[in-house]
Amino acid sequence: MVYPIVKFGDPVLEKLAVPITVFDDELRKLVEDMFESMYAAHGVGLAAPQIGISKRVAVIDVTFKEDPEAKIVLVNPEIIHTEGRLTSNEGCLSLPEFREKVTRPRTVTARAQNEEGKTIEVTGDDLLARALVHETDHLNGKLYISYISALKRDMMKRKIRKLVKQGEW
User: What percent helix, strand, coil does the chain show, rounded to 5?
Assistant: First the structure.
């Protein structure tokens, strides 16, 4: 099932997501639906709050379906190590049409559980590192725009308010 993507302004995006304690068919179905929703929206990562579900689960596929082995499921993730810095354009499915330069760690290691409840560690560089931090941030109620200047953030929010007024957001 493809869920609609929740856009900036929805309170679910700004609150701490609830930890997962039950690893069952319902969770596996949610993960499957999240991959389907992410691909339908042309994204490389998706956190449950982005589909209106306040649970600590995220999915990532930086190959966008090219490598089925590259699919990552993160349940209750935490970033345990970062290294280096990389500034690059970043976007978000919950902020469509907007991209800004954001500095993130170049290398990231996250510890999480998979959909079966098994503890995993994922280390990634560049785009995967960015996705690991970006999606974990979502689960902590934080969006990438909190890393840009206040001026750029205010300009973006003004544009969004205008889009909301026009019924286009």
Answer: 35, 30, 35
Q: Is 135 a catalytic residue?
A: yes
Quote the tokens at residue 26.
């319902």
* Residue from 127, 84, 136 nearest 105 by CA: 84
Of 83, 115, 135, 168, which residue is the catalytic one?
Answer: 135
Q: Is the whole model's pTM more than 0.90, yes or no?
A: yes
Q: Which two tokens stand for residue 159?
A: 């544009």
DSSP 8-state symbol, 43: -
Coil/strand/helix, residue 47: strand
How high is the pLDDT of residue 26? 98
Query: Whole-angstrom Cα distance, residue 3 to residue 13?
Result: 15
Q: Can you spell out the DSSP letters for 51-91?
A: GT--BSEEEE-TTTTS-GGG-EEEEEEEEEEEES-EEEEEE
Calculate the average pLDDT of the chain.
Answer: 97
Residue appearing with tokens 């490598």: 67
